[in-house]
Known about the structure:
The complex is a heterodimer.
Chain A: H1 7-22, E1 27-28, E2 32-34, E3 44-52, E4 56-62, H2 64-73, H3 81-98, H4 100-103, E5 107-109, E6 113-116, E7 129-136, E8 139-147
Antiparallel strand pairs in A: 1-7, 2-7, 3-4, 3-5, 3-6, 4-8, 7-8
Chain B: E1 11-16, H1 20-27, E2 35-41, H2 44-54, E3 58-61, H3 70-80, E4 85-90, H4 95-104, E5 108-111, H5 116-131
Parallel strand pairs in B: 1-2, 1-3, 3-4, 4-5
Helix pairs in contact in B: 2-3
Amino acid sequence: MFKESEIRTFIEGTTNYFETSAQQSASVGSPYLVTDGKPGAYEYTGVIGITGARKGIVYFTAPRGMLTVLLMRMQETDTSDENIKDLVGEVANTISGNARRDFGKNFVISVPVIIAHDLEKVTTPYQRSFVIPINWRTHSAKLVVCLE
Amino acid sequence: MAIAPRQKPMLKLMIVDDSNIIRRRIERSQQIARLEVVGSANNGRAAVEMFLRTQPDVVTMDLTMPEMDGIECVEELVAINSDVLILVVSALADKATAVEAIEKGANGFLCKPFSDRQLNDALEELLSEAEA
C-alpha cells in the first residue's frame, strides 16, 4: 500500500517543476487523504496511469488561468486550448517521471490522458487518494496520487 | 586581403517529443543558431521515418511517447546511422533509464523539467562533441 511518507517524492517533484520551468516557486499545502473516491478536479487534468511495481494513477489538475500564466512564464506565446492541454499533460508526466528517482524503473508511467472541461470524467481507480494542494501566484491547483 | 574565417557548417537537428510545448522550447534555444531544424516528430515511429528522410546530425529525444518509445527509437536511429548525436530529454529520472539510453547509443541525458540555461548547456556540450 502507498505510504504517507512516500508523498514527499511528489511534493518535491511539484516544487521542482515550478522552480525550474516557471522560475518561480509554488507553495505546497499540507497533503490530505481523501477516502470517498472524489479528490476533485479543475478545468484541465493530465492523468498518468501507473503500472509495474505500483498500480494506480497520478493526476495534475489546474484552472486555465494558472496554465496560461505558466505557459507565458515558459516564453510560450501560443496559449490555445491545445497548448493548455499539452501543458497539463506535460506537468503530470514530468512529476510522475521524476518519481522514478525514488521508486525506480519499475514505476512505469503511461503517456498522459487529458480531460478538459468535464470534471465528472475525472475519476480514480481506488477510494483512497492523497491530495497535494498547490498554490502558485494567485492560482490553486492539485496533484492527486491514487496508488494501491 | 583579409581572409574570412571559415564558417562551421550548420548541423541538422530533429526534435522528437510528444509535447508541442517542449518541441517549441527546444526550437527557441540560443544554441539553435548553430542548428537547422529539419523536422520534429511526436512519436518514435514518425521519428524513424523522418530520420530516414531528413538525415539529421543531432536529435533531441523524449522517452515516454506513444507508438514507439524513445529507447527503442534511439536504438533504431543508431542502427541507421551510428554517427548521429542524440540528447535524451526526459522526465524519467531514475539512473537505470539514463544508463540504458546511453548504452543504446544516446550521447547525453537532460532531465525534465529543465531551465533554458540547462537546455543550452546540454546542447552546447553535444555540439562541442559534434564539432570536435
